[in-house]
Structure formats: structure tokens, C-alpha cells
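Notes from hallway chat w/ T.B., transcribed later so I don't forget. T.B. wanted the structure written out for a chain they're using in a teaching module, and asked if we could keep both sequence and C-alpha cells in one place. Agreed to drop them here.
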Amino acid sequence: MTKDVKTREDALVEQFRRVPSVADLRHGALQVAIGDDAAVWRPRAAHETILTCDWFLEGTHFLVDRHPPESIGWKCLARAISDVAAMGAEPRCFLLSLALPAARTTDWLRKFLHGLKRASRALRCPIAGGDTTRRAEIVINVTVLGECKRRHAILRSGARPKDTIFVTGRLGEAEYGLRLLQRAPKLVDARDMRMRKHLFPEPRVAAGLWLSKHKFATAMIDLSDGLSTDLLRLCKASRVGARVQEALLPRVKIAAGDREKKFEPTQFALHGGDDYELLFTIAPRDVARIPKTIGGVTVTPIGEITSQRDIALEVEQGRAKILKNKGWDPF
């Protein structure tokens, strides 16, 4: 009779079972989740599958001595799901690959998984499996599987001249939180509302699904690297340009006690990353049909698509300048 031998990795994997995974089984999508060599997925009829993956690296995307483990768990999933939202799709399940040092397999991992569990439940995206290994620094990779109705996926490449450019939410809030975190001498308080957007971003899934359902958006992208960078990407894919009105930007509000730090809300809104808001374009015939809020979040028109290939920023009536690409670039 053989003994049931459990390795340290097996014990680690057991902790991942606490992240929602079984909840989706009764809906017939995940036939097999954690516990086998691979997951078994059954797609819904008349739907297309959306796939995306995202790195989340210690030292590059988060600082282990400043970022609370719960926020790292939340954010690694939320930022990946934002790509699904930008396609007008619904997240259905995810795979997690995690490498970490032995010193992070106890209390840090418990808190990380707590944040991941909260995100999984809030975003209705159960874990289907993944992989673990040991490494000197923390390396996280999340793969999300989403679905949208056939021919309803919203691409970056559909914007046309005279389309109106909209954004959800306020821009620059995550950059504001990051700047405060960088000034903090130690692990920050996850309850500090000024850092909320940076620590616990909320991908705009409901807004993306609404736009997909009604087929109003001609193009869409999520604002992960900053407006100046991501708008340029959308325009390149669509072979168009854009004119953004600075006065219309829904900018971050700087707390009274932080104004002496000389933070610049406009610069945060134009170039700050990690907001995970949606930027989308609407044809002239449909602009009047766009409500002021979609999926519980405010939407704001900020400019217009043009036939020129450059991105212009109108700083005052009739006067514009080229909007330089100053967003996040890992290289």
C-alpha cells in the first residue's frame, strides 16, 4: 500500500483552491478546473473566445515593500481582465502562473490570494488552473479567457474621421496614487482612498459589454499605458489621427493636502498609466445615443478622430499642439 505523498508544491496548489473555481462548473463552462493536468472548457454557442495574457513583475509593476499583497493579488487579475473589457467581452475564467521565493509562500501568499479571491468574485472570473515555481523574485502571469457574441468584438481598427472620442471615468487617478506610493517610506495603507485606483483598479467590463451589445463603438482600447500612448495605438490601427480638447479631459482631483507637492492633474490625465478606463470612438450618427453613464461609470467626450495621422491637443480655442507620446513604455 503506497502512501499519499504530498510535495511542498502540492501544498501550495491546495491554497489556490480557495480562489473561486467551482462556482462556474454548474453553468457548464468549466468541466474540469484545478486538480488535473489541464482544464476542460466548453464555449457557449454563438460566441467567440477572447484570449489575453499579462505579466505582473516585482520591481517593474509593483514594489513588494510598498504594495500591499492584497492589492497585488487584485490587480494582477484586474489588469488582465481590462483587455477583455476593451474587446466588449465578458471574462469567463483565468489561468495563473506564479513564481516566488520560499519566504513569500506563507503570510505574503495568504494575503495575495485573499486579494485575488476578492477580484475573482467581484469580476465573476473563476480560476481554471495554472502553474507554480520557485524564483528569487515574484513573477506573475495571468491568462484570461473571455467570450463575446459572434461578430460583436470591438477592435482598435474601426475608428473613422469625425468619430467622437469618449473615455470612461477620470484619468490620472492611478498615476496620482503611484506618485504618493513612491514617496511613502514603507508599505502603504490599502485603505488610503487617494491610492485606490492604483492599488485596486476596476476594469470597465459592464461598459464594454454595453457598447458591444448595442454595437455603438467603432473602435476601443483600454487605457493601461496612458492616454497619449493608447490613443496613438488606436489611431495607428485605424490609420487615422485625433484632436483632443484639453479642457474636456475628466482629470484626477488632487487632495488639498497634496497640492503643495506640485502634482499636475493634466499631465497625469494625458500620460499616466494604470487607469484601466476605456477609450472608445462613436460614429456621428450615434453620438446622441450615448448616455452620460454606462455600466455605472461616467463617460466623457474628449475629442474627435481626424483624417490626419497625428495626435493634436487643443490647449485653447483654435490653438493646438502635437500630443507627445509620454505614457508607459517597459523598454
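Follow-up for T.B.: The radius of gyration is 21 Å. Might be a good example for the class.
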